[in-house]
From TrEMBL:
This is Transcriptional regulator. It comes from the Bacteria. The lineage of its organism: Bacteria, Pseudomonadati, Pseudomonadota, Alphaproteobacteria, Sphingomonadales.
Length: 80
């Protein structure tokens, strides 16, 4: 079975869902703190072609960073 390559907005939704379950709060608040999943050029980002620029308090950013690590391990690439 082939792996599904998500669109950036799908990964953003996945991150917000993960954070809601792990840290509490609402999915909408976490989606705002995660921000936009930005697709990067694969030629210069061979291990993963996406990033986020989180906002919020230091503990929010730490939780987002941990969620990104978890999601990126399973979904290193986003589709155009």
């Amino acid at each position: 079975m082939a792996n599904h390559i998500h669109r950036p907005e799908e990964l953003g939704d996945l991150l917000a869902t993960l954070l809601t379950g792990a840290a509490g709060g609402t999915k909408e608040v976490w989606a705002t703190k995660v921000g936009v999943v930005e697709k990067l050029p694969i030629a210069t980002n061979v291990r993963s072609n996406w990033q986020v620029t989180p906002s919020g308090r230091a503990d929010d950013k730490k939780a987002i960073s941990q969620a990104v690590d978890i999601v990126r391990a399973q979904h290193p690439y986003v589709a155009g």
